[in-house]
Amino acid sequence: MIQTGKKIRSIAAALLLCAACFTACKESSREQGISYWLTTPDRSALFAKQPATLPFRDTANNYPTITVDTAQTYQEIDGFGYALTGGSATLINSLPPAEQDALLKELFLAGDNGIGVSYLRVTIGASDLSDTTFTYDEMPAGQTDESLAHFSLEREQKDLLPVLKKIVALSPSIKILGSPWTAPTWMKTNRAFKGGSLEPAYYSAYAQYFVKYIQAMQQDGITIDAITPQNEPLHGGNVPSMVMQPEEQADFIANHLGPAFKAAGLKTKIIIYDHNADRPDYPITVLDDAGARPYIDGSAFHLYGGDITALTAVHNAYPDKHIYFTEQWVGAPGVFSTNLQWHVSTLIIGATRNWSRNVLEWNLAADPSYNPHTAGGCTACVGALTIGDSVTRNVAYYIIAHASKFVRPGSVRIASNVPGKLNNVAFKAPDGKKVLIVVNDGKTPQTFNIRFNGEVATTALDTGAVATYVWK
Fold it and tell me: 359: which strand partners?
């Protein structure tokens, strides 16, 4: 009886403590209210902090209600950001030092004047948004280099590495994903930058190419958190590009890339696929390979085809493997309002509601003529920044800012319902703050409630407008 009495008193004390914590949390939310940042389709507000704080109240009304619930959690978030292409690095590095430093602080710090970009994708060798095609081990026609004696990052010493070093100095924990558009041409079936496939005879050499890349970047102070074996492996029409079928990718990882990383002691993640959501069978096929699967961290997606819900289908097939969203472009000339609404609704909200740990826009910077790019590469890719005589912030800057500033790495997605056309996603940040991103996908302005801990705050959004709401 004495032990039972102690247990009862312990349970009662725990319940009182929980009640006290709940009350304290409720009081904190009530006292602090909700701060929010707004972007409107007419650009009258561009990720602008609103002067009013929305108070939580006990009173009820008949407006649609988004209920945020911290008790139900989903995936952890790695970050939000852009592709830092070779062309982007060249443009940023061309800015005067003081202007460049101010821009990098604005992009990569999350303080009062920064948007806190926390994830970057870089290209291993050239992408189509480089000024020319290259890899880190090209050889004269008819020659090979299986020992990779000629491997060199010299091409990146001019722009990419200096910019990356400054970024890492500002944000030491930033995650960097490396993706190749092609293997060295001497490894390919057609010996060309465009199209072709990786010769099986060079699978081991190509695996060592990745090892050398990761080690060389590390020597320059750049940690590569993850790689994908091939950008858009089913698209052989870009310049550069390379086709890699799912069975080929599984073989390459299982028998060459995975063992090479293990032998070298590399912790860099291997993320598969890196292509459109219309082919969820591709990553599932690779993950079905028992030899490849242990080396794979997860699958990456773009959305130039298919539906964002395909990410959940792959998650459900292998729930222990992570999901990433690694590329989506804004095409020139583009309509700000249309792109703002679609990208936030479909990617910032849609991808994370379908298990993605990140969202990356393509790409960080271009000049006013959408240069640089390769001959045959993208001629109409709008950067998040246009860098010419001045720096202009475009729609992708604001799309990412609405998430990156507040949904910091280590945040966890939490439950929220979607009433009507008020598409949204909610997170709990590492500091305990709640973050709710909402877009009004309806055709009319909408007044609505945000409910948390039994109280509501009332707000409104014009059609197509985006807001990020933050509270304790």
Answer: 80
